[in-house]
Amino acid sequence: MTINIASGAAAYANTALKLAGTEPSSAGIKGSGTGFGDLLKEAINGAIDTEKQGETMSLQAATGKADINAVVSAVTNAEMTLQTVVAVRDKVVSAYQQILQMQI
User: Fold this and answer.
1) 22 and 42 part of one domain
2) Inter-residue contact 58 to 75 (CB < 8 Å)
3) Distance, CA of 48 to CA of 59 (rounded, Å)
4) 66 and 90, same structural domain?
5) How many domains does the chain have?
6) b/e for 28-41, b at 16 or more Cβ within 10 A?
């Protein structure tokens, strides 16, 4: 079985465009706007911002300047974000290891 990587990537790009509500162009993934790298960068920046907010609220709680409910909420969000990032990282590492084990 031969797998064409370019056609697979184009199929994923077309599906993503359909889910976003736009039709795929004849140029394929070129000029389609936001790419996977941009999406990943936004997700990482969001995770970092959530972690910073949790740290800030913890510091405010230590000085007595924050509502305990807001602190618990921020820390819980930060914890869930960290768990999600770790789970995604584990899946990426697992997929990479499977790719390395593929026979050419």
Assistant:
1) no
2) yes
3) 17
4) yes
5) 2
6) ebeebeeeeeeeee
CA atoms within 13 A on the CB side of 48: 6
CA 58 distance to own-chain centroid:
25
| pTM exceeds cut of 0.70 | no
Give dist(CA 77, CA 31) in Å, integer: 35
Are residue 96 and residue 65 in the same domain, yes or no? Answer: yes
Same domain assignment for residues 27 and 46? no
Distance CA 61, CA 68 (A): 7
pLDDT digits (tens, 9 = 90+) for 53-89: 999 999 998 898 888 898 899 889 999 999 999 999 9
Helices (H), 1-104: 5-20, 36-62, 68-101
Question: Rounded distance, CA 83 to CA 55, Å?
Answer: 16
Note down the domain range covering 38.
Answer: 34-104
